[in-house]
Amino acid sequence: MWLDIHSPHSGRIVRVRDKDVGRSVRDEDGRIFFVLARPTGEGHYASLTRTGGPREEQNYDTMLAKQATAKASGEERSTAQIHDATGRARSTLKGRLILLVIIVAVLAVAYLFTKGSLGNGRWPWESPPPTPVVPQQPVNPPPPAGGS
Question: Which of 87, 90, 85 is nearest to 27 (CA)?
């Protein structure tokens, strides 16, 4: 459920979620205020402090009364838009770019390990595998020594 609360800074309407009651919220200019439940249990009000209090509630009611008077006399702009403080979807472009760089780096290392300069299948700091020593036999044995 959504609540339309007036910002105590600018007086403009800010749309917040029900679960944001008791939490800090930012208005259209990025200024922080708190949405609190009224002690009587009848509605909510905006406060500049986390704990609120009777003075903050009275200030909020006074601001609403002034806005109602201004609206009745026609002084308030009718094209005022509601600021949506429920959040926005974060751009995934930065995350996708980082993921792409990581994938390219992994592929480059895999290429170097298999076919590139490390094509022997070893990392440069690894020692080569031991080669078995096999005694070599002469291809043509020498003729026997001795007389004929």
Answer: 85
Residue 61 has φ and ψ, to the nearest 5°, of -65, -35
Q: Compute the distance between CA of residue 112 and CA of residue 119 in angstroms, rounded to an integer.
A: 7
Print pLDDT tens along the chain (148 aa): 788 888 888 888 888 888 888 888 888 888 888 888 888 888 888 888 888 888 988 888 888 888 888 777 776 555 555 566 666 666 678 888 999 999 999 998 888 777 655 556 566 666 666 778 877 776 776 777 775 5
- Half-sphere exposure (CA, 13 Å, Cβ side) for 137? 3
Query: What is the rounded CA–CA span in Å between residue 136 and residue 120?
Result: 26
pTM, entire model:
0.47
Contact between residue 15 and residue 2 where contact means Cβ atoms under 8 Å apart: yes
Neighbour-count burial for 111-135, b at 16+ CB within 10 Å, e otherwise:
eeeeeeeeeeeeeeeeeeeeeeeee
d(CA 110, CA 104): 10
